[in-house]
Amino acid sequence: SFSSIKSRVLIIIKEVRKKERKKKMVLKIYAPLFASSKRAVVTLIEKGVSFETVHVDLMKGEQRNPEYLAIQPFGKIPVLVDGDYKIFESRAIMRYIAEKYRSQGPDLLGKTIEERGQVEQWLDVEATSYHPPLLALTLNIVFAPLMGFPADEKVIKESEEKLGEVLDVYEAQLSKNEYLAGDFVSLADLAHLPFTEYLVNQIGKAYMIKDRKHVSAWWDKISSRAAWKEVSEKYALPV
Amino acid sequence: MVVKLYGQVTAVCPQRVLLCFLEKGIEFEIFHIDLDTLEQKKPEHLLRQPFGQVPAIEDGDFKLFESRAIARYYATKYADQGTNLLGKSLEHRAIVDQWADVENQSFNALAHPIVLNLIIKPKLGEKCDTVLVEELKVKLGVVLDIYENRLASNRFLAGEEFTMADLTHMPAMAYLMSITDINQMVKARESINRWWEEITARPAWKKLMELAGRH
Predict the structure, then answer these.
(1) Contacts of A95 in chain B (CB under 8 A)
(2) End-to-end Cα spacing for chain B
(3) Yes or no, beta carbons of B98 and A88 under 8 Å apart
(4) In the 3-class helix/strand/coil scheme, how is B121-173 assigned residue by residue?
(5) B100 with B165, same domain?
(6) Where is the GST N-terminal domain positioned along the sequence (chain B) (predicted)?
(7) Same structural domain for residues A123 and A145?
């Protein structure tokens, strides 16, 4: 009868709309092939959260396009879009994911607020002391030849020195603790993965890690985690 | 137990923590670490802060360094006391974190070398890198335009309330504002100017300036 056809059509329309809404609700992470985004990507995979990716090619300067600047006004990556909600800054995204999905996967924030304090401490160390010299090495050694800008040898030398001093402190810390914030893996450890991967590979300075016994053991442990292996394989930058 | 703060009260990073304590009404004791004589690099302080920086805190057996991590810890521990610095929901908290991280990655990266070259080096009788400073000022202008746009439609960086996102900018911003042409760059931007006047009128900020001997 007509009314039963009509109700079947209405059911189908409802199902299609439900699927569309669900699709819009899937998390989207931008520029997954680039190191800063990989901090967020590895956290999503560790927590078993499904997500989609949107490619942004930094080597073509796509992060400077008006459409991208409309969602990240500093022209940096990544951005996470969760329905109507968006957030940028890789470590802020890591914290958001770790908090929102606290009850699934490893607890990357520690069990107490004191443990969380230690996680925040080492996450900030990564942001303020580890990342800047390593970023300088990455830009001057990996991307300068690819993108045709001159490498600054003085910056390379100073950056390696600075990074070495930081790694000496890490060596002492990791001789007392299995991971940076204690005996548990946390956001602080994960935050180091993407750019350290450059250090031991394309930058050609694996000795900085390997020559430090405890840093080396820590690196082996965190980089052989299933989540990081998945990131390295699925989102390898074709360079 | 009164928390011990090791640092110099005129330095930006200890001020970040002090401001958090003052906003939250948390009692503290300052132990002066003299930066002019490089006390922060001496063995005793290196036990507290292995990178030879300030601040560091000791709260009974609990120790922590990195000013932003310390501020976040106390803002969490005393969430229900004083100003709520971390937002009202998970989503709001993440936006607070986002702008606090922007301070670390995009603002401080420029503010720190500017202040180092124009304020600290002259005090120590060292030469200022004027070429670098001019480059940094141009970059700062670009960043300030983004903040201007943000603050044109938001009372504070993370929305309608004062949070850690605003607080974390204040100590370095105050030093930048003491530099004439940067002061002009800020005053020329209506919304940033409005925001700066409002947040520096807060009682906790005024108390901090008194503590630091600056008015």
Answers:
(1) 94, 97
(2) 30
(3) yes
(4) HHHCCCCCCHHHHHHHHHHHHHHHHHHHHHHHHCCECCECCCCHHHHCCHHHH
(5) yes
(6) 1-82
(7) yes
Neighbouring residues of A192: CB distance < 8 A, sequence distance ≥ 6: A126, A130, A222
* pLDDT reading at B106 higher than 80: yes
Cβ-Cβ contacts under 8 Å for A233 (sequence gap 6 or more): none
Q: Which residues of chain A are within 8 Å of residue B64 when distances are taken between CB atoms?
A: 117-118, 121
Per-residue pLDDT of A2-12, as tens digits, reads: 888 888 888 88
Instruction: Look at residues B52, B82, B112 and tell me which one is the last residue of a structural domain.
Output: B82
Dihedral angle, C-alpha B34, B37, B40, B45, nearest 10 ° = -80
**Tokens matching residue A171:** 């060596």
- Tokens 């442990």 -> residue: A221
| Nearest residue to B186 (alpha-carbon basis) of B117, B114, B86 | B114
Tell me if A124 and B90 make a contact (CB, 8 A cut-off).
Answer: no
pLDDT in tens, A100-141: 999 999 999 999 999 999 999 999 999 999 999 999 999 999
Q: Are B18 and B9 in contact (CB under 8 A)?
A: yes
Taking a C-beta distance cutoff of 8 angstroms, is the pair A79, A86 a contact? yes
In this structure, are A141 and A202 located in the same domain? yes
The C-alpha atoms of residue B13 and residue B168 are separated, in whole angstroms, by 9
Range of the structural domain that residue A20 is part of: 2-101
Q: Give the minimum alpha-carbon distance from A169 to chain B in angstroms, rounded to a whole number.
A: 6
Domain of B36 in residue numbering reads as 3-82
The predicted complex's ipTM stands at: 0.95
Residues of A with CB below 8 A from B76's CB? 113, 116
Per-residue pLDDT for A25 more than 80? no
- Three-state DSSP at A86 gives strand
As a whole number of angstroms, the distance between CA B160 and CA B153 comes to 10
Tell which A residues from 96 to 135 touch B, by Cβ distance under 8 Å. Answer: 96, 99-100, 113-114, 116-118, 120-121, 123-125, 127-129, 132
3-class DSSP assignment, residue A27: strand
B152 touches chain A (CB under 8 A): no
Q: What's the CATH number where B111 sits? A: 1.20.1050.10
Same domain, residue pair A214 and A120: yes
A211-224 pLDDT per residue, tens: 999 999 999 999 99
Entry pTM: 0.93
